[in-house]
């Protein structure tokens, strides 16, 4: 099954690895409203990146669902982290909020001149967004965005497990037809 | 299902998902209760709170049962007042349910096995937890641990590099203790007989259990390995009621064993880990595990002794010990005779506590209770039953085959000042091991090929007026293959530099007679020495600027005293690399 797609001049691809250990311009962290890094990938960011990231987040205070803030990535291999507050736990209008969050990430990257971004399986797992829905909305929104005029060159959707990878790969195989 | 405009979004979502969770087992338990009260005397929460009926399993079950009656049972739809049917409407209703499902029950299943009607309260209490988690209503600790397990792959957020580093450190210690390079912890080795999976608590807080297991595997000569990733056999999905998490976690481990082509997955001592991995995991993950076997390490260790693969001396464990049955091992998996068999093989004075086996009382830390700090006071109050049970044995040590129980028991032992030790079977077996020297395996060793020393062929002039320092630097450089010339003052240094033309000069600044600054400037201004690399080594960093302010090219290297061998070599290496590049 394919795991890479050319969209205009940009590339959209899938990868199975630890997103917080990736050497890339930026990666997306599915953040909390108070922007506390917390556990999960937040643990990796705190340990691998050092305290400067949480310190930098303090200036933003609390943010709303679909909001996005960008910080440096401390001592991590990536250069920047895009903290995106997506919808969670079956909340209302989940799909449209997820789409808006993905779009806001891409726009923030555009504004900051970021050329390469890694997305996780947005909202899937702990936050309970169904994996198929996450795959459909994330990949669909990214593809739509890359079809327009953009300076973003490389978008990686970085999956943690074979379970996530298969769900995204299934969705990926239908992307070229649309 | 009836919906109401007054109902909160979360409450509505809980009801929608409730319907999907109903199966024969759950419905059987929801409709069968006759309120006989047998469960009441089975619950450690009730026994420790005799005046509070809200701890009774039947009462707690009715908080969930009434929702079922109201929406999914015809009696509750027709006669809600008669069957006490009641819906949920607000987020506060969900919070109240959370305090019961998470805070007043450890899902130990002691009430379940004492119910004459076969009501398994723990099963639908777990379902209620899962419904609450699906709308984000859960104790903070449950959220933290679940997120770690979803995203990092283990419930304590241990990163791969930390896990591997710990295993390597333990392997080094084991090799030293056994004085045998074969005593190690093989990581990611394919095609082994045993893939050993652990609880993250071991790598984070109790690495002795890993090194003890490694010692046992070493003594048997077993072909075994530990994965660098996807090694966690615990599963917080069992506690949080999130079947999706349960499936994702179990799948990671199963796929890792298959990837390594391991023949047997051995699960270290952990009650909920054993139940999740061995019993529930394949169902949650929707996988049929056929390419490897799964076994508790208790059974593995017993087998090694009975097959004569290891020898033990039980007199090494002479202190009186008692055994605490983990609820998940004993009540849910029937694993209670095996640990006793092993205990009797490795301990001299084993004393039962009563009740025991499937009737044993919970350590009170089960069901994820140790991660829910908001309920700690009521947990410790309910632990009175367990504390009395332990005290009555007169044992100094309590043994258990569960990491969760180790923490739960340690906490209550401290709280009730019992002065007992908590340990696991792996520790006792390792302590009783009689390790005979393993025969040397002749290994064909290729004759050593001498590698050229790093500084071989380099000529270095060391200039310093302190004899000790001169000797130290010269020795370091000579040990690394350099030809060393020495000078203890400026004039001597200039003379040697012109005559010998070394590749590099290490130069002290503060010297009697001609200072290092003057020597440096003269070296740079003399055509035959101008291109010689200079590394300043000084105890007066404040004079650094004087060197760099001279109207000549700056020195190639610079070091402040005191220096050690590593710093000298790093600087010399860099300086020589610079020269070779140029």
| Broad structural category of chain A | alpha/beta
Largest interface: A-B, 23 and 27 residues
CATH architecture of chain A: 3-Layer(aba) Sandwich
Overall domain count of chain A: 1
Cα(first) to Cα(last) distance of chain B is 82 Å
Give the count of helical stretches of chain B. 27
Separation of the first and last Cα atoms of chain A: 17 Å
β-strand percent of chain A reads 15-25%
CA radius of gyration of chain B is: 34 Å
What low-confidence regions of chain B span 5 or more consecutive residues with pLDDT below 50? none
The run of helices and strands of chain A is EEEHHEEHEHEH
The poorly predicted ranges of chain A are none
Strand content of chain B: 5-15%
Instruction: Give the overall shape of chain B.
Output: elongated
- Backbone CA Rg of chain A: 15 Å
The CATH homologous superfamily of chain A is termed Leucine Aminopeptidase, subunit E, domain 1
Strand count of chain A: 7
Helix content of chain A: 25-40%
How much helix, percentage-wise, in residues of chain B?
A: 40-55%
Please report the first level of CATH classification, the CATH class of chain A. Answer: Alpha Beta
Strand order of the largest sheet of chain A: 1-2-7-6-3-5-4
Question: Any overview of this molecule?
Answer:
The complex is a heterodimer of chains A (178) and B (582). By secondary structure, chain A is α/β, with parallel strands linked by helices. Chain A has a single domain (4-175), classed as Leucine Aminopeptidase, subunit E, domain 1, CATH 3.40.220. Chain A has helices spanning 41-49, 52-57, 94-112, 131-146, 162-175; strands at residues 4-7, 10-16, 26-30, 68-72, 80-84, 116-119, 154-159. Chain A has a 7-stranded mixed beta sheet. In chain A, helix 4 links the parallel strand 6 and strand 7 (154-159). In chain A, helix 3 (94-112) packs across helix 4 and helix 4 packs across helix 5 (162-175). Chain B has 4 domains: 9-138, Fumarate Reductase Iron-sulfur Protein, Chain B, domain 2 (Orthogonal Bundle), CATH 1.10.1060; 145-306, no CATH class; 311-434, Rossmann fold (3-Layer(aba) Sandwich), CATH 3.40.50; 459-581, Rossmann fold (3-Layer(aba) Sandwich), CATH 3.40.50. Chain B contains 27 helices and 15 strands. Chain B has a 5-stranded parallel beta sheet, sandwiched between helices. The interface between A and B is medium-sized, with 23 and 27 residues.
């Amino acid at each position: 099954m394919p795991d890479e797609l050319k969209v205009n001049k940009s590339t959209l691809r899938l990868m199975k690895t630890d997103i917080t250990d990736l050497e890339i311009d930026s990666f997306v962290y599915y953040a909390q409203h108070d922007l506390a890094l917390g556990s999960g990938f937040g643990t990796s960011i705190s340990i691998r990146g050092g305290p400067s990231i949480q310190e930098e987040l303090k200036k933003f205070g609390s943010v709303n669902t679909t909001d996005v803030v960008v910080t440096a990535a401390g001592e991590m291999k990536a250069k920047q982290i895009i903290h995106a507050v997506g919808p969670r736990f079956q909340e209302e209008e989940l799909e449209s909020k997820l789409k808006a969050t993905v779009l806001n990430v891409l726009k923030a990257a555009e504004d900051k001149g970021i050329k390469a971004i890694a997305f996780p399986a947005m909202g899937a797992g702990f936050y309970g967004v169904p994996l198929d829905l996450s795959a459909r909305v994330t990949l669909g929104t990214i593809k739509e965005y890359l079809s327009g005029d953009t300076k973003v060159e490389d978008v990686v959707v970085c999956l943690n497990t074979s379970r996530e990878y298969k769900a995204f790969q299934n969705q990926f195989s239908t992307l070229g037809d649309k | 299902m009836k919906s109401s405009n007054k109902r909160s979004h979360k409450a509505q979502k809980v009801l929608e998902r409730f319907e999907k969770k109903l199966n024969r087992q759950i419905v059987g338990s929801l409709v069968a209760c006759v309120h006989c009260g047998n469960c009441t005397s089975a619950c450690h929460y009730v026994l420790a709170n005799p005046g509070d009926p809200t701890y009774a399993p039947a009462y707690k079950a009715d908080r969930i049962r009434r929702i079922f009656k109201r929406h999914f049972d015809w009696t509750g739809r027709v006669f809600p007042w008669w069957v006490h049917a009641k819906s949920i409407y607000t987020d506060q209703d969900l919070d109240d349910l959370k305090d019961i499902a998470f805070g007043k029950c450890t899902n130990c299943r002691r009430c379940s096995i004492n119910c004459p009607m076969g009501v398994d309260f723990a099963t639908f209490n777990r379902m209620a937890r899962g419904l609450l988690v699906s709308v984000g209503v859960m104790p903070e600790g449950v959220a933290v641990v679940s997120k770690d397990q979803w995203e990092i792959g283990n419930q304590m957020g241990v990163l791969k590099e930390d896990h591997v580093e710990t295993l390597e450190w333990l392997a080094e210690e084991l090799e030293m203790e056994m004085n045998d390079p074969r005593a190690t912890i093989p990581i990611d080795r394919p095609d082994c007989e045993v893939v050993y999976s652990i609880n993250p608590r071991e790598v984070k807080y109790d690495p002795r259990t890993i090194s003890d297991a490694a010692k046992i595997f070493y003594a048997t000569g077993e072909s075994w390995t530990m994965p660098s990733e996807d090694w966690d056999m615990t599963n917080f999905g069992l506690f949080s009621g999130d079947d999706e998490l349960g499936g994702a976690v179990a799948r990671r481990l199963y796929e890792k064993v298959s990837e390594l082509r391991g023949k047997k997955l051995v699960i270290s001592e952990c009650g909920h880990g054993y139940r999740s991995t061995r019993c529930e995991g394949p169902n949650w993950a929707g996988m049929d595990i056929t390419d490897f076997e799964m076994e508790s390490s208790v059974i593995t260790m017993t087998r090694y002794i009975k097959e004569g693969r290891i020898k033990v001396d039980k007199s090494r464990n002479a202190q009186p010990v008692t055994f605490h049955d983990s609820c998940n091992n004993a009540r849910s998996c029937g694993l209670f005779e095996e640990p006793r068999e092993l205990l009797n093989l490795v301990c001299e004075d084993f004393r039962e506590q009563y009740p025991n086996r499937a009737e044993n009382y919970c350590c009170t830390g089960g069901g994820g209770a140790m991660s829910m700090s908001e309920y700690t006071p009521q947990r410790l109050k309910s632990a009175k039953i367990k504390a009395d049970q332990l005290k009555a044995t007169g044992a100094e040590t309590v043994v258990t085959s569960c990491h969760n129980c180790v923490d739960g028991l340690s906490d209550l032992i401290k709280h009730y000042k019992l002065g007992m030790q908590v340990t696991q079977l792996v520790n006792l077996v390792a302590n009783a091991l009689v390790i005979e020297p393993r025969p040397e395996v002749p290994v064909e060793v290729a004759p050593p090929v001498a590698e050229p020393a790093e500084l071989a062929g380099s000529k270095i002039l060391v200039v310093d007026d302190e004899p000790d320092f001169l000797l130290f630097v010269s020795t370091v450089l000579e040990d690394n293959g350099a030809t060393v010339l020495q000078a203890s003052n400026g004039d001597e240094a200039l003379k040697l530099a012109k005559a010998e033309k070394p590749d590099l000069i290490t130069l002290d600044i503060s010297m009697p007679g001609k200072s290092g600054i003057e020597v440096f400037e003269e070296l740079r201004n003399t055509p035959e020495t101008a291109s010689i690399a200079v590394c300043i080594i000084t105890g007066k960093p404040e004079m650094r600027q004087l060197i760099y302010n001279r109207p000549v090219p700056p020195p190639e290297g610079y070091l402040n005293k005191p220096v050690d061998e590593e710093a000298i070599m790093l600087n010399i290496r860099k300086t020589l690399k610079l020269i070779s590049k140029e």
